[in-house]
Structures are given as structure tokens and as C-alpha cells.
Design brief:
The complex is a heterotrimer of chains A (310), B (266) and C (254).
Chain A lengths: L5 E12 L2 E12 L3 E5 L6 H8 L7 E6 L8 H5 L2 E4 L11 H11 L4 H14 L15 H12 L6 E5 L7 H16 L3 E6 L2 H7 L2 E6 L2 E6 L1 H8 L3 E6 L2 H10 L6 E4 L4 E5 L2 H10 L6 E6 L2 H9 L6
Parallel strand pairs in A: 3-7, 3-8, 5-6, 6-7
Antiparallel strand pairs in A: 1-2, 1-4, 8-9, 10-12, 10-13, 11-12
Helix pairs in contact in A: 3-4, 8-11
Chain B lengths: L13 H15 L3 H6 L2 H14 L6 E3 L2 E3 L1 H31 L3 H5 L6 H29 L11 H22 L5 H16 L14 H4 L3 H14 L6 H27 L2
Antiparallel strand pairs in B: 1-2
Helix pairs in contact in B: 1-6, 3-4, 4-6, 4-7, 4-10, 6-7, 6-11, 7-10, 7-11, 10-11
Chain C lengths: L2 H13 L2 H27 L10 H22 L2 H9 L2 H7 L4 H29 L11 H20 L6 H17 L11 H8 L2 H13 L5 H31 L1
Classes of the chains: A alpha/beta (310), B mainly alpha (266), C mainly alpha (254).
Chain lengths: 310, 266, 254
């Protein structure tokens, strides 16, 4: 039995499409009030998992409970207590911004006066009050995403599912969305986010799982994962081919790990500057050097040998 | 808590299905001209063909009575306009919402389920068709083409026809994948229905081998039912039309719900 | 002339679905002809003199020949053209190549002419099979019908060039095209209309197109009357072309 305060519980969860296995027996738990992330590249199985939690796709095997209910038998009850922000917008293009929210309130059977109040609040929250009468088509990508978020909040959900919430948005729009999500979290809404952006995962998530090829390969808070799989800092260098060869010969012992990428070399060490000094001492010429903190991108690279964004 | 197999389909509810009607009404507030203009087409045809050509036609023998051509043709036009509306509201519009605009995907994350959507769209088609019918029947009364008080039953007959034809159209929605099929369906199925179902002339003109085939098609039954009621030639045989249309509605809506579930389930 | 390139491009797009497209666009009027010409025709039988010596079927079929071109020409210049102009912005791409607005315009109009011919000729052939024609002069009905259709195509193209959304088409087809179709003499002779209706009909292009078609096929037309109808249709076409080029230039180049 899932314990108190656990909103989503999955054990051995499987999703198959014919012969193709999209989700291959994963276990995870989402606790009330936290921001939980699924980090992984496209095709990892994140969206399939989200669709199962959101009751729009039935699990092929394993166990899944959402707010203590069965997503197959009790889909309707679950849907009235969660909100879903899908990857591809499915806003109603024949209605205005406000009408989209009004109809959603009706689908949830929310009484009209209460709905009107909530809608004004929500438009304010996502900063679309001025666009209330506009049709959906002319809105920018960021505005459409914010409208989708507002729509997902109409029924005051305790759990909000967001599938790649800032993909395709410009940096300003992304930061606005992150800010709104952060405020939601402060209000106690549990967030489940899928993303392939490491900065998004680091910014928003309290805990996350790293998914790759239908499986979970790691779990923990961003800081725990970085500490477990990476050094504190990374030195990124670009150098000519000869110098690269020379570096290959002399790097052991200098750093904990090296990743030889096609265009640069990543040197993982406790402090990047010291490593840089060490390389200079060896007389190896470097074209550019960058010292930065380790990120979840590095964690993913360590675990799978590939980058998050192909 | 186990991953039990999904049910074949969920049950619709009247309250949730009405949400689709509300949604459509809200959407049409922006495009009201499309609704209003739909009233005129059958009226134009009634004028041009019913009266324009009708004055060259002496009278039509109709089941024992002799009625004017316009009186014969008008209920055919009414039935045709119901079919028109059923096609638009049951096929074109839902097809676009389903395949291109993904409107239904958005609705399905709420407690409104797929069966509600199907029933709701049919309800909308019936309501819109009935509104047109009220207008058209008023025109018929004004022009003296309604020959009996039985015509009050024409309104429920229109609703029944609308339900049957719209559910039939929704099967097309559930099964059509390519937009290019649209033209084929219109020209090879719908257009012949319009022309040859006893709308413009009685099926008694047909050779004996053709008549039974036409009598299997839905528009024939709708037109015949409406004609019987407006012309005042009412007998038990009209019940066969009611039975046909009622069965068509029940069968088609069940099939549509099944097919839609199969199409949208992964 | 560069317009041929525009025609060529359309031909390539069309070629992919040509068989079913031609078949369907001929089938529809033929079905209509059968239902109305034969069905209504037999009801009208006792009073058929009003429709001329050739009977109702011939009367209706000749009207249909012209009316079909009108509807087809008007339609081709509406949604498909708006699609290219507004939604898919094909012309912006074509203008980047060394083609001018006139080339685009005449290319599109010529293409519509080709599609009209593709529908009209088979329809004419079917009418001939029904034994409607008794003179080789009847072949002139084909260019007459195409001329009519082109006139409407040009008029609608001039409209399309000014539109951003397709809402206006609802008005166009419901309140202009359909009444013209019904009341220009296709179904019944216009002298059955009230006096003002007769005058109004005679001012509209489809009436002239149908009179011309009937003139060369089933009724007796004086040379003078024939030339008058042709002049009217040419004037209609020319006006549409001038307006269309002006609007299209304004749309694409400013």
C-alpha cells in the first residue's frame, strides 16, 4: 500500500506498442508537494509515462496508482483532480482565450460564478488578461503555452503534469513559465515535469529520475545526482588535433574522468582551474578553455555516453 | 491497482454530452453567418425548382391523392437540408476537430469522455437541423404547401432523421484517414443520395428493379416520412420509416462509439 | 511566356490525382443531369413545349453545361486560390523566381481554363450520346461554356486577391452563385420570372452564357444576338481580368 503523502506510485510499469517497448518496467514515487522530474532525451519513454499517469493511455503491465486510484478504472475521478499540460497544444482554435477557459470550467462542472472568478485569477496569473478576447491562432508560442497552463489549473488540481513545458519557447518565455511554475509549487501544487533540458530540471525539480531507452538509469535530487556521478567542476577545452593526441597521452592521474567529444574535450576534476594550470605546465596548447560547474547534462553523459540533446 | 485491461468503451452521460453542444454554440457565435445562411439554400431550391419548374407540372399522384409539385418537393428539400446539416456537423466539422485541430484531445483530459463527444456532436447536429426545420416549415406553411395538421409531427420526425443521419455521418468521421476521401464520399455517395431518393420526383418513376434499392437508403425514408406528415397522407406504413430511422440511429451511434475508441486508444 | 511555367507547376500537382479528380468532376454534373433531366423531364412531359422543340432534357442539359462551368470556375478561384495565396504562400516563392504578377495571374487563369475544358468536353460528349445535338455547330457550346466559366473565375479571383479569410466565400456561394445557378434559365425559362426578375437575369453573365449555348445547340439564334451575348461575356471576362491583376499586384507587390 502506498504510504501517506505519496501521490503517484509506480512499480514495474510497462508500456508496449506492439513489439516496441516504450516503458520497460520502471519504479518511482512522487510525493505530495514536490516538483518531480523525468529527465531524458527524446524517445526515452517520458511522454508515454506521462500519458499513463494522465489516464489517456492504459499501462500494458505493472502497477500504477495516482492519488490512490486506478488510472484505468477511475480515470474520470483522477482527471477531475489533476491538470495536464501536454507537449503539443490542443487548445480550442474556434474559441477565444477566455472561452477556452470557460468551456474547460464547464467540462469540469464548475458553477458559472465561481468559474468566472477563477478565470480572471488565472488570466492574471499567466499574464494573459489583456488577450482574453483574442482568438488562439494569433498568439505567440509562449502565450499559447501559458494559456494551456491556465487551462490545466481551472479545476484547481492537486497534481499538475507538464510534458516538455518550455520546448520551442524563446528564453524570455521560458523564464516566465518557470517563474509561474515555481509559484505554483509554493502554493502546494505537486508538479511532475518531463524535460530534456538540464537547466529546466535543475531549476525546477526537487527530485528527478533520469530516463533513457525506456528505463530509469538514476534517481535523486539534482545535487545528489551530480555529486554521485560527477566531479564538482568540469573543464571544457578545444584544441588542435596534435595537441589532442598529446593530451590523450598525459591526462591520466590529472583528472577523474575525460569525455572525448567530437568538437571538445571535457575534463572532470575537483577544480577546473587547477587542471587547466596542470595542462599548461605540460606545455600543451589550448585554443579555448571554459571552467564550469557540473550539470545534469554531465550526469547523463556519464550514465549513457550520450548527450541529452542529439 | 493492477494494470487491468481498459474497458471497451465508457458510457456517455447526457450532462457531459451537452457540454459539446455548449462548446459548439460558443464557437458558432463567432461564425453565425454560416448558421443563418444555411437556412436559405433549401428555400432557394424550393422557389426555383418547386415553383419555377413546378408550374409546368400538373400534379403529382401521391398515394391516392393528387398534390402540387411544390407540395411534393418541399418535404424532400427539408429532408435534404437535414442530410446536409448532418454531414457538416457529423462529418466535416468533427473530422477537422479530430484530425487537424486536435480539439478533442484537449477535451479528453477532462471528465468528458469519448462517448460523450460522439453523443454530444450528434445532439448538436439534431438541434441545428431542428432550428432550420422550424424555419423551413414556416415557409412551407406560408406558401400553402402544408396540407394537414399532421405536419406538427414533422418536427420530431426531423429530429429523428437528424439523429439517424448524423450518427451515420459520424461513422465516416471515425473511419476516414485522408482528407482526399472527402471528395469521393461526397460525389459517389452523398450526391446521388440527394438526387435519387425521391426528393425531386417520386420513386414510382423508377424501373421495378431500382426501386427496392433506393428504398434501402436513409434519405428516402426521411423524405417519405416528412412528406406523409406534411401532405396529410398518414397510415401505418409511415411507422416503417420511423423504425428504419430509429434503428439506423441506434446501430450507427453504437458502431461510431466503438470505432472512435479503437481509433483513439493506444 | 512565363505563365506557362505556372500552368506546368499546377499540372504536376494535379497529375498525381488526375484520374479520380476528372472522373468525379464529370460524374457530379452527369448525375445531376440524369436526375433532373430525366426525372423532372418526365414529370414535365405534358407541358414540354415551353422548353423548346428539343424537350426538357435538352433544355436542362444545355443550361447545366453553362452553370457547371460557372460553379467550377468560381470554386477554382476561391478556396484553392486562397490556399495558395494566403495559407501556403506559394506565390511569394514563385515571385522570388523571375516571374511577374501578370505571369502568375494568367498562368492561374489559363490553368482554370484547362480544368474547365477537362470537365466540359466529357460532359458534352455524354450529352451528344443522349442525342441532344443535331448540328455540328453544337461544338461551339464548349468554348461558350468555357468562356462563361472563365468570366466567373476572373471575377472571383479579383475577390480572392483582397481576402484574408474565407468567410466571404459563404456569402459568395450561398447568396450569389446559388441564386444565379437557379434563376438564370438553367431549370426553367426566365420569362417565367416576374418582370423585374427577367430584367435582372438578363443583366447577369450566366444567362448570356446559357443563351449562347442554347443558341448554338437547340434553339435558333440570330447572328446579331449571338454576337451580343459573346460581347457581354468578353466584357465580363475583361473586367474581371483587369480588376484581378490590379488587386493581385496590390496584394503581392506592395
Amino acid at each position: 500500500m502506498p504510504e501517506e503523502g505519496v501521490l503517484i506510485h509506480a512499480a514495474g510499469l510497462i508500456k508496449r506498442f506492439g513489439d516496441f517497448v516504450a516503458v520497460d518496467g520502471i519504479d518511482f514515487e512522487v510525493r505530495r508537494g514536490e516538483a518531480f522530474g523525468f529527465l531524458g532525451p527524446n524517445g526515452a519513454g517520458k511522454t508515454s509515462t506521462m500519458r499513463m499517469i494522465g489516464c489517456t493511455s492504459a499501462p500494458t503491465g505493472g502497477r500504477l496508482s495516482v492519488i490512490d486510484m486506478n488510472p484505468v478504472a477511475q480515470a474520470s475521478q483522477i482527471k477531475s483532480r489533476i491538470g495536464v499540460v501536454p507537449q503539443i497544444d490542443n487548445l480550442d482554435r474556434e474559441l477565444s482565450v477566455r472561452e477556452n477557459l470557460e468551456m474547460y470550467a464547464r467540462y469540469f462542472d464548475i458553477a458559472r460564478p465561481e468559474a468566472a472568478e477563477r478565470i480572471d485569477e488565472l488570466l492574471e496569473f499567466v499574464q494573459l488578461s489583456e488577450k482574453a478576447a483574442s482568438r488562439v491562432e494569433p498568439l505567440s508560442g509562449g502565450m499559447k503555452r501559458r494559456l494551456t497552463i491556465a487551462r490545466a489549473l481551472v479545476n484547481r488540481p492537486e497534481l499538475l503534469l507538464l510534458d516538455e513545458p518550455t520546448t520551442g519557447l524563446d528564453p524570455q518565455a521560458r523564464h516566465l513559465v518557470w517563474d509561474r511554475l515555481y509559484r505554483l509549487k509554493q502554493r502546494g501544487v505537486t508538479l511532475v515535469i518531463t524535460t530534456h533540458y538540464m537547466d529546466e530540471a535543475e531549476q525546477l525539480c526537487d527530485r528527478l529520475v533520469v530516463m533513457d531507452k525506456a528505463e530509469i538509469v538514476a534517481e535523486g535530487s539534482p545535487r545528489e545526482l551530480i555529486a554521485a556521478y560527477c566531479t564538482r567542476e568540469v573543464l571544457e577545452v578545444r584544441l588542435s588535433d596534435d595537441n589532442r593526441e598529446r593530451l590523450k597521452g598525459s591526462v591520466d592521474g590529472l583528472v577523474e574522468r575525460v569525455e572525448w567529444l567530437p568538437d571538445r574535450v571535457l575534463l572532470y576534476a575537483e577544480t577546473g582551474d587547477a587542471t587547466l594550470a596542470g595542462i599548461n605546465d605540460m606545455g600543451i596548447q589550448i585554443e579555448t578553455a571554459l571552467v564550469r560547474r557540473s550539470s545534469l547534462e554531465d550526469v547523463f553523459l556519464t550514465l549513457t555516453g550520450r548527450t541529452l540533446i542529439e | 491497482m493492477t494494470g487491468a485491461p481498459a474497458p471497451a468503451y465508457q458510457l456517455p452521460s447526457v450532462r457531459r454530452s451537452l457540454r459539446l453542444v455548449q462548446r459548439n454554440a460558443m464557437a458558432y457565435r463567432h461564425a453565425w453567418i454560416a448558421i443563418v445562411s444555411g437556412f436559405f439554400e433549401p428555400v432557394f431550391y424550393l422557389g426555383a425548382v418547386g415553383f419555377g419548374v413546378g408550374q409546368f407540372i400538373d400534379s403529382i399522384p401521391y398515394r391516392g391523392a393528387e398534390i402540387s409539385y411544390a407540395s411534393f418537393m418541399a418535404p424532400g428539400m427539408l429532408a435534404a437540408s437535414v442530410l446536409n446539416g448532418a454531414l457538416f456537423d457529423g462529418f466535416f466539422s468533427p473530422f477537422f476537430k479530430l484530425s487537424y485541430e486536435k480539439t478533442y484531445d484537449g477535451i479528453l483530459t477532462t471528465p468528458v469522455n469519448l462517448s460523450d463527444i460522439v453523443v454530444g456532436e450528434v445532439m448538436w447536429a439534431v438541434m441545428r437541423g431542428t432550428v432550420y426545420a422550424v424555419g423551413f416549415l414556416s415557409v412551407m406553411v406560408a406558401l400553402g404547401l402544408v396540407l394537414s395538421a399532421w405536419a406538427v409531427l414533422a418536427l420530431p420526425a426531423v429530429m429523428l432523421s437528424g439523429a439517424a443521419l448524423a450518427s451515420g455521418a459520424m461513422i465516416l468521421t471515425a473511419t476516414t484517414r485522408e482528407i482526399s476521401s472527402l471528395e469521393k464520399v461526397m460525389t459517389l455517395v452523398v450526391f446521388p443520395l440527394f438526387l435519387f431518393s425521391g426528393t425531386f420526383y417520386p420513386v414510382s418513376l423508377y424501373p421495378d428493379w431500382l426501386r427496392p434499392i433506393v428504398q434501402l437508403t436513409p434519405l428516402y425514408h426521411s423524405a417519405s416520412l416528412l412528406r406523409g406528415l406534411t401532405a396529410g397522407v398518414v397510415d401505418v406504413s409511415l411507422l416503417w420509416h420511423v423504425l428504419y430511422l430509429g434503428s439506423m440511429f441506434l446501430v450507427c451511434i453504437t458502431v461510431t462509439i466503438r470505432l472512435m475508441h479503437r481509433r483513439l486508444t493506444d | 511566356m512565363n505563365a506557362t511555367k505556372v500552368v506546368a507547376r499546377n499540372a504536376i500537382v494535379f497529375w498525381r490525382g488526375w484520374r479520380s479528380s476528372i472522373f468525379l468532376s464529370v460524374l457530379a454534373p452527369v448525375l445531376f443531369l440524369t436526375a433532373m433531366g430525366l426525372g423532372l423531364g418526365s414529370l414535365v412531359e405534358p407541358n414540354a413545349e415551353a422548353f423548346g422543340d428539343a424537350g426538357y432534357l435538352a433544355f436542362f442539359a444545355t443550361g447545366m453545361l453553362g452553370a457547371n462551368c460557372m460553379q467550377s470556375g468560381a470554386f477554382s478561384a476561391s478556396y484553392p486560390m486562397m490556399s495558395k495565396l494566403t495559407w501556403e504562400r506559394n506565390y511569394e516563392a514563385i515571385l522570388a523566381a523571375p516571374l511577374g504578377v501578370r505571369d502568375i495571374y494568367f498562368g492561374e487563369l489559363a490553368w482554370i481554363g484547362v480544368t474547365l475544358a477537362q470537365q466540359t468536353i466529357p460532359f458534352f460528349a455524354i450529352m451528344a450520346l443522349f442525342g441532344i445535338f443535331d448540328s455540328p455547330l453544337a461544338v461551339l457550346a464548349i468554348p461558350a461554356a468555357i468562356l462563361t466559366g472563365l468570366g466567373f473565375a476572373a471575377a472571383v479571383m479579383a475577390l480572392t486577391a483582397t481576402l484574408q479569410t474565407d468567410e466571404a466565400y459563404t456569402w459568395l456561394f450561398r447568396f450569389v452563385v446559388t441564386p444565379l445557378f437557379l434563376l438564370s434559365g438553367t431549370f426553367f425559362p426566365i420569362n417565367e420570372l416576374p418582370a423585374w426578375g427577367v430584367v435582372a437575369a438578363q443583366l447577369t453573365p450566366l444567362y448570356h452564357g446559357i443563351e449562347l449555348i442554347r443558341g448554338v445547340t437547340i434553339s435558333n439564334l440570330t447572328l446579331l444576338a449571338g454576337l451580343a451575348h459573346i460581347a457581354y461575356l468578353l466584357f465580363f471576362l475583361a473586367a474581371g481580368i483587369m480588376l484581378g491583376i490590379r488587386n493581385l499586384t496590390h496584394r503581392l507587390v506592395s
